[in-house]
Each structure stands twice: as structure tokens, then as C-alpha cells.
Amino acid sequence: MIRVLLADDQSLVRAGFRALLDAQPDIEVAAEAADGEEAVRRIRELRPDVVLMDIRMPALDGLAATRRVTEDPALADVKVVMLTTFELDEYVFEAIRSGASGFLVKDTEPDELLRAVRAVVAGDALLSPGVTRRLIAEFAARSKEPAAAGALGRLTEREREVMALVGIGLSNEEIARRLVVSPLTAKTHVSRTMVKLGARDRAQLVVLAYESGLVRPGWLG
Q1: What is d(CA 101, CA 7) in angstroms, rounded to the nearest whole number?
Q2: Which candidate among 1, 22, 33, 45 keeps its CA 20 to 30 Å from the CA of 139?
């Protein structure tokens, strides 16, 4: 059973998400929170598998709340998916840099929301369909200059290649087709790369690909 915590200051939004999630045989809503402070408190108490976290909330916003969660080693298994009203919310890229496993727009289709919850539990990054690459490029272009690429020295040539493909938004299946390998082999390369670089999940690997200069905005191969 996948346990979800809903953090949003709008009770109507929480009610809608709860009705959808609780109707699934493999998902249950463990708790709700109306602000970031309450969200962090309930997350520490309940250790849910997934948190659906609104970016804009009173007391403590979703970005700061996410940072508190992802910086706490005791909560390493908790996955945070940010909720935003607009696809190009100015905080989305920073949220992923802060450790969120992805983001969804609030008016996403019900099937996509369910897929998102299940995907992040499986260890996949989640970005709303149709805007993934455009959004990453948009926010990477506004982010700081590429950091020193020293950390990439730990990677093999193939791992660097795989990291670049992750950075431009390709799934494991797409990477497998591009490199003419099996999806399992592609997944293994991605996993080893994350371990070597200390990336919390696939979303952070995307960020590292940009920050190291391995991928630059516009390289949407």
C-alpha cells in the first residue's frame, strides 16, 4: 500500500485528491496538512511514501518544507512531488534542486496523478507530460553557471552518456533504444550514476547534468 500525505492550503484541492487516491486499491491518504509547518511535522510523524506538496502555502512554503524533508536523513525514503498552478512556475526548477522528485500542475488528468504517485515510489522522476524538456531547459537557462565538472570524473564514458540522455528528458526505455541496449541495462547505468554522484533520485540527476555543464539548455536531442 502506497501511503500519501496531501499538503495544500486549499481544502477543496485536498478533498479532490483524497477522493481520487483513496479510491485506488494500492494507495491511501495517510494525512493532510494545510501549511508547510504542519506538513513537515506530519511527515516526520507518519513517514509517508509520497508527499503531494503545494508550492505556495502559509506559515512555511512548499519549497522550504521540501528542503527540510530532503535534508533529513531519517526521511530519505519520502518522495516529494510539488504541486503548482502553472506549468512554468518560477520555483519548479529550484524545487527539484531542493530534492523534490518532480512536479505536477494541479489540473493534471486523474490518470496522470495516479501514475505520478506510483512512478516516484518506483524511483522515477516525474515531470508533467508535454512540458518536461521545455521546462528543464527554461529553468536551467536561469540557473547558476555550470559548476566544476570534477564529480563527473567518477563516471565511465557510458555513464556520462547515459547521464546526458537523462538530462535531456529521456526515459530508461528511450535511452535503451538510443544506445541499443536493454531497458534493464539502461536502468542499471542510471542507478550506478546516481549512486556515484550521490543523487537522491532521477530528478536530481537531471539537475546535476545541467549544473556540471554536461548538458546545456537547448540540447533536446
Answers
A1: 15
A2: 33
Reported as a pLDDT band with limits 50, 70 and 90, residue 221 is very low
What stretches of 71-156 show up as alpha helix (H) in DSSP? 92-97, 110-121, 132-142
pLDDT tens string 130-162: 445 555 555 556 555 555 456 788 899 999 999
Beta-bridge mates of residue 31:
5
Q: What is the four-CA torsion angle of 82, 84, 193, 164, rounded to 10 degrees?
A: 180
Q: Is the pLDDT confidence value at 201 over 70?
A: yes
Contacts made by residues 129-136, CB under 8 angstroms, sequence distance 24+:
131/87, 131/88, 132/169, 133/168, 133/169, 133/220, 135/87, 135/88, 135/92, 135/93, 136/93, 136/167, 136/168, 136/169, 136/206, 136/210
Q: CA nearest 193: which of 146, 155, 148, 167?
A: 155
Give the list of residues 6+ apart from residue 125 with CB closer than 8 angstroms, or none. 101, 102, 201, 202, 203, 205, 206
Q: Are 189 and 162 in contact (CB under 8 A)?
A: yes
pLDDT for residue 202: 78
DSSP β-ladder status, 27-33 and 50-54:
unpaired
Position of cell 478533498?
Answer: 15
Cβ-proximal residues to 186 (8 Å cutoff; 6+ apart), any chain: 162, 172, 173, 175, 176, 179
Taking the C-alpha atoms of residue 9 and residue 62, their distance in angstroms, rounded to an integer, is 10
